[in-house]
Specification:
The protein has an 8-stranded mixed sheet, with helices on both faces. By secondary structure, the protein is α/β, with parallel strands linked by helices. Helix 11 crosses helix 12 and helix 12 packs across helix 14. It contains 15 helices and 14 strands.
Length: 418
């Protein structure tokens, strides 16, 4: 006989590490998943289903040091999640024996509805569906993943964790665009911010590593991956962030422009004859570092620069220039910056980007020590010299663990609702 959700929660509360959370990130054509131990923090198993709806799919499952790959037909998200459950059944670990206490669903856009994790019911699912116009590339996949996940795992609480939730604390002056107020209200045009789970996790991790109260810290967090965002965090609460109504605004990214004059859209439409969809594709998928240099992988970009490629050198210069501009702006907004933290793929692994970002900021009390900064960083590390007034750190992010822990905090808080 299978344990009830309440029994699972009791077992988790009593035995800690014996409980696990299945984290699902359902995109438009893929499903990423991870079975997480929220106490120890390790990924028990993980995997990816790719090419949903494209004929033959690709399923990759990792467990106990083994990687299993399959190429089944995956016509929709239902089939994708059935493949995921099949991998657990045949390759392990057995979900029946893993004491899953919650399923956490990453959702990109929570709009103004959600300021934290929520137990998913029909009303919550309806609101996520209503927000599809604000995230047409992401929320439809989330909705499909949640619907199928609830059907396939009906005896476990399902929790939605929103990328935008951490930024619901932004002051009105920070999230309001100077657009006609009536138009903005009618169509939900405002700054929402993204990567919030990562920014929140890193802010808390910095506090714990330093042994300082989160409430006492002013932080700038730089989440630098293929998508990139910056945030200003005062006392654990976000007061500014670089991404806006969509993830297109802000820093230069792998394939996205970041900040750009909106009139460029009108210009390209009127003078280049480009459609709105073509411009959307250009700004989101064919610009940024890739648009400037042909490469959005920093390893390849650095190789091109070493070979004397001027386009690659300019791309890096533009990227660093934008980063410095945001650091300066957030320094002004915060008034005092205690810590600047690099995280995510580029932030954790690229010491050249970290060094160039800090170069020239010594007058603000910001610098990077070349020895401490060297190489990839797998554990939290201070990379600034001892004399600086602002610490510079690298803290690896772990969004899946953050999601798992938020799920546990929610279901543990009110088990009667589970």
């Amino acid at each position: 006989m299978n344990p009830t959700p309440g029994d699972r929660l009791s077992a988790y509360s009593a035995n800690g590490a014996h409980g696990s959370v299945l984290v699902i990130n359902s995109g438009s054509s893929s499903v990423k998943y991870q079975l997480v131990n929220p106490i120890g923090g390790e990924a028990i198993a993980s995997g990816l289903v790719e090419r949903i709806g494209e004929g033959e799919g690709i399923v990759t499952h990792k467990f106990a040091g083994n990687t299993t790959t399959a190429r089944p037909v995956v016509p929709d998200h239902g089939a994708a999640l059935r493949e995921v459950l099949g991998m657990f059944q045949t390759q392990g670990p057995d979900l029946e024996q893993s004491n899953i206490v919650a399923v956490g669903h990453r959702v990109v856009q929570g709009g103004s509805y959600f300021s934290g994790p929520v137990l998913i019911d029909d009303d919550v699912l309806g609101k996520i569906r209503d927000l599809i116009p604000l995230a047409p590339l992401h929320n439809p996949g989330h909705v499909a993943g949640i619907e199928v996940g609830r059907a396939l795992l009906p005896d476990v609480p399902h929790v939605a964790i929103f990328d935008t939730a951490f930024f619901q604390t932004l002051p009105e002056a920070a999230y309001t665009y100077a657009l006609n107020a009536e138009v903005a209200r009618e169509h939900g045009v405002r700054r929402y911010g993204f990567h919030g789970t990562s920014h929140q996790y890193v802010a808390g991790k910095v506090s714990r590593v330093l042994g300082r109260r989160l409430e006492d810290l002013n932080q700038i967090i730089l989440h630098l991956g293929n998508g990139a965002s910056a945030s200003a965090v005062r006392g654990g609460k976000a007061i500014e962030t670089s991404m806006g109504m969509t993830p297109l605004e802000g820093l230069v990214m792998g394939t996205r422009t970041g900040d750009i004059d909106p009139a460029v859209v009108f210009h390209l439409h009127r003078n280049a004859g480009m459609s709105i969809d073509e411009i959307d594709d250009l700004l989101n998928k064919k610009s940024g570092l890739k648009g400037l240099s042909g490469e959005n992988d920093f390893r390849a970009l650095h190789e091109l620069i070493e070979q004397g490629d001027e386009g690659a050198k300019l791309a890096l210069d533009v990227y660093i220039h934008r980063l410095k501009k945001y650091i300066g702006a957030y320094h002004a907004i915060l008034g005092r910056v205690d810590v600047i933290t690099f995280t995510a793929g580029v932030g954790e692994n690229d010491d050249i980007v970290r060094a160039l970002t800090a170069a020239g900021l010594e007058s603000l009390g910001i610098a990077v020590d070349p020895v401490r900064n060297e190489g990839r960083v797998k554990e939290p590390r201070i990379i600034s010299p001892d004399w600086t007034s602002t610490l510079v750190m690298v803290v690896p992010t772990n969004e899946e663990l953050a999601i798992a822990r938020q799920c546990i905090a929610l279901v543990d808080e009110d088990p009667a609702e589970v």
